[in-house]
Amino acid sequence: MVSSELKAIVESVIFASEEEIGSRQIKEIIDSSGLRISVAEIEEAVRDLNDEYRKEGRAFEIMSVAGGFSYATRKDYSRFVGKLYEEKQRKKLSQSAIETLSIIAYKQPITRNEIEFVRGVNVDYIVNSLLERDLITIQGRADSPGRPILYGTTKNFLKVLGLNSLEDLPKLKEINEILKNEEIEGITEADIELFNSVSSGGQASSESEDHQLTLITGEEQTTRDDERTSDAEDEATDAEDEATDDEDEATDDEDEATDDEDEATDDEDEATDDEDEATDDEDEATDDEDEATDDEDEATDDEDETTDDEDETTDAKDETTDAKDETTDAKDETTDAKDETTDAKDETTDAKDETTDTEMQTGAEDDAHGNNEIIKQEGSFEEGVREEERQDTFGQEDREDGYQEPQQ
Asked: pLDDT tens-digit profile of 298-350?
């Protein structure tokens, strides 16, 4: 039994998904979050949730549609919900489109020629319309001559019909039994012939004959018509239908002509596309070459940029060295200027010293000469003194001896 937590997780994932989501996709989401759950547990959780919704009388349920799960309102409330979207509903498919879509659904994959063989009319316009509505898609090409395109139904086809897979389509044998045993309003002889042609396409002839419908006789048809409506109403309806059929036939003719023109245009466009594709291939090759050249240029630019960076670094170093040399030269010039100033001062000092020496020498000579004069003067003075003393001595002696110096 699945836990309440896992059921709540499965419920939240399906509710939050904008499109139908499959069991394996839900498993991957839950496993990636660290929890572990199997596909069987997910399907059991969906069944349990639907049981709970039913018991609680909820207006919605989880449906299996187009191979996944999706929330939808119950069929019981479709007439109310339909009113809500009445203005937004798409235009209904025409009878021809429904017939063509039925043939594709039961005989897919199938080519246009095979569809036209069953219907007996051109189906180009109808096929294009079904492609635009995303009810059918191109499934590839047949191996027959010309390799015609194969068509099949889409996932959207299953969603529109509320089917989980193509296996849920009613079996042709079941439809045949219904048509045989029940009277269905709106079923015409052409519808029965179409059904017989589709149902007998892939079966043996004996088996096909068992499933062919038998049309009612004219008397039985008249009796049933009398029971349903009056002859007058039937004639009026038939007249309106005939007029509508004429209009539809005229429209189909116009559409066929338009389709022929479109087909011719498509052929021209295809040829142009082939030329454009060839041109694109050449352009792509050229772009590859240009890209390779650009890569080489980029590599060269990177090398040049590296070299420029190295040169800039070297230039910066050289500028720094030059600046240092200029600073050193300035210092040397300053030192030389100081040396010259010192030399000038030394020369001035030397000149002063020479002047002083000269003056001192001159003074010394003067002093020496003066001293000589003084000495001479002192000698003369001393000699005079001595002469005087001598004279005094001689005078005294004369006086004592009575000597008188003879005159000279």
From this structure: 898 888 888 888 988 888 898 998 889 888 888 988 888 888 888 888 888 88
Q: Are 130 and 115 within 8 A, CB to CB?
A: no
| HEC readout, 321-354 | HHHHHHHHHHHHHHHHHHHHHHHHHHHHHHHHHH
Q: What is the C-alpha separation between 214 and 211, in angstroms, rounded?
A: 9
CB atoms within 10 A of CB 270: 10
* Radius of gyration in angstroms for the set of CA atoms belonging to the chain, rounded to a whole number: 66
Taking the CA atoms of residue 74, residue 75, residue 77 and residue 83 in that order, the dihedral angle to the nearest 10 degrees is 120
Q: Has residue 73 been placed in a domain?
A: yes
pLDDT at 1 over 70: no
Q: Which residues contact 158 (CB under 8 A, 6 or more apart)?
A: 65, 66, 67, 164, 165, 166
Q: Report the C-alpha gap between 358 and 101 in whole angstroms.
A: 143
Query: Nearest 5°: phi and psi at 3?
Result: -70, 160
**How many folded domains does the chain comprise?**
1
For the chain, give the longest Cα–Cα distance. 236
pLDDT tens, residue by residue, 73-125: 888 887 788 777 665 555 577 788 888 888 898 888 999 888 888 888 888 88
Q: Which two tokens stand for residue 154?
A: 């889409």
381 inside domain: no
* Cβ–Cβ under 8 Å, residues 200 and 211: yes
User: Domain with 48 in it: what CATH number?
Assistant: 1.10.10.10
Q: Distances in Å between the alpha carbon of 273 and those of 259, 279, 280?
A: 20, 10, 10
**pTM given for the model:** 0.35
Task: List the domain range (segments joined by +) for residue 50.
Answer: 4-78
What is the Cα–Cα distance from 4 to 8, expressed in whole angstroms? 6
| Alpha-carbon span 315 to 309, nearest angstrom | 10
